[in-house]
Structures are given as structure tokens and as C-alpha cells.
Design a protein that fits this description.
The chain has 215 residues and is α/β, with parallel strands linked by helices. It contains 4 helices and 10 strands.
Length: 215
């Protein structure tokens, strides 16, 4: 991964895909300084897959001269940030930062985008709208939310409007990311599988959660 070559100027693009906070830049530059010829390396951030409604990531240093055409390379505070072409859409609008929780270490990615938790599943959806939504929650959505200690429960269905009402419990109740999880994860997946659904509405009392963010 080390080389004395540097990236050609035309490899750099101006549009930021993944924003990196100043403190995260400082931390990554500190880590990179231990590498041979650190000034020739960029931070590569790639989406490698997903578990339920959460993406999985790989962070590594990559020689700038080896960055393939089509990848995004943006200098942020002296740190070239590389996002592979195949990860640009999934990381668009995300932020790389240090954890805010006391005692946590490493880096965190706050990503407003969510993968489709139903991708690759073949479910029999031949019941009523309420039954089909319950099947999706039970077979796909809740197993993925369980990794974060959360779950979603169907409250009711308005057949006329096509609106579905759910509540979010466990780790999802009061969580600041629950809105993104519902809109970009659960709602997108349900609407793709059941086109007759108009909107998935969160009926949760988030002020009662462990981390109430609506209060």
C-alpha cells in the first residue's frame, strides 16, 4: 500500500460524497502518519454489504496513484477521502466522525441512507394488506432491527388511504436514528414489496424511550 507516487490532479473531484469532521480528519491523519510515505495515501471508505437496514463498511489506506477512474477522491483538511464508484450512492450525504458516547473509540459513520432489508428474500405475500405487512416485519425487518435491540410492531392499516401505522420499540424507541430507519429502511422496503402502501407512519411515543430526542 505504500508508494512515492502521488495522485494526478485530474483524479480529484469537488463534490463531497462522505463528509469528514475536523476531529475525524485529525485522528485519521495521526493514524496515517505511522505508514510509510503517508502523504501518498488516502482514506478509502467502502460499503461492503449490509445487515438488515444497516450498511457495513471497510476503511483502509490506499495509494492515491492506484485509485481507479470513477472513484470519488476529495481532499478534506489535507486528507484525501476515497469513495469507490460502487459506494458513492450509498454513502452520499454521510459523515465520518468520532463517537460522541463516552468510552467509545474508533470512528463512526452517520449515514442517512439505508439498504433494502428485503433484498434477496422471496416471501409469499398473498394475504390481506395487514397480514402482508406483518409478514414483512416478522420475517425481514425485525430480525435486522434485533441486532440493535429494536423491533417494529404493526398497529393498524387504513385500507382506503393505504397508510400503515407502526410503533418502534426496544432500542429504536427514542433513538435519534429511528426516523431515518423508518423512512429510508422500513418504509422503502414495504412500499417496494407492497405497491399499494402509500405511507408508513410512526405512531411511537419516542419521548418514553431511553434516549428521547423529541422531548
Amino acid at each position: 500500500m505504500t508508494t512515492n507516487d502521488v495522485a494526478e490532479p485530474e483524479q480529484l473531484v469537488s463534490d463531497v460524497v462522505l463528509a469528514v469532521t475536523d476531529r475525524a480528519v485529525e485522528k485519521v491523519l495521526e493514524i496515517r502518519s505511522a505508514e510509510e510515505a503517508p502523504e501518498t495515501l488516502g482514506l478509502r471508505v467502502e460499503v461492503t454489504g449490509h445487515v438488515g437496514v444497516e450498511y457495513q463498511y471497510d476503511l483502509s489506506f490506499e495509494a492515491l496513484h492506484a485509485v481507479p477512474a470513477g472513484d470519488s477522491v476529495v481532499d478534506q483538511g489535507g486528507l484525501p477521502v476515497i469513495v469507490p464508484a460502487g459506494s458513492i450512492l450509498a454513502l452520499s450525504g454521510a459523515t465520518l466522525d468520532l463517537p460522541t458516547s463516552q468510552g467509545q473509540s474508533g470512528l463512526v459513520i452517520r449515514n442517512p441512507n439505508r439498504p433494502n432489508p428485503l433484498a434477496g428474500l422471496d416471501l409469499a405475500l398473498d394475504g390481506t394488506l395487514a397480514e402482508n405487512v406483518s409478514t414483512l416485519l416478522e420475517k425481514s425487518v425485525n430480525p435486522s432491527l434485533a441486532s440493535h435491540g429494536g423491533f417494529a410492531t404493526l398497529v393498524g392499516v387504513d385500507e382506503e388511504s393505504g397508510n400503515v401505522y407502526v410503533t418502534m420499540g426496544g432500542g429504536c424507541q427514542g433513538c435519534s436514528m429511528s426516523r431515518a430507519t423508518l423512512t429510508n429502511g422500513i418504509q422503502a422496503a414495504i412500499k417496494e414489496a407492497l405497491p399499494q402502501v402509500n405511507e408508513v407512519i410512526d405512531a411511537t411515543d419516542h419521548t418514553a424511550g431511553e434516549n428521547p430526542f423529541y422531548r
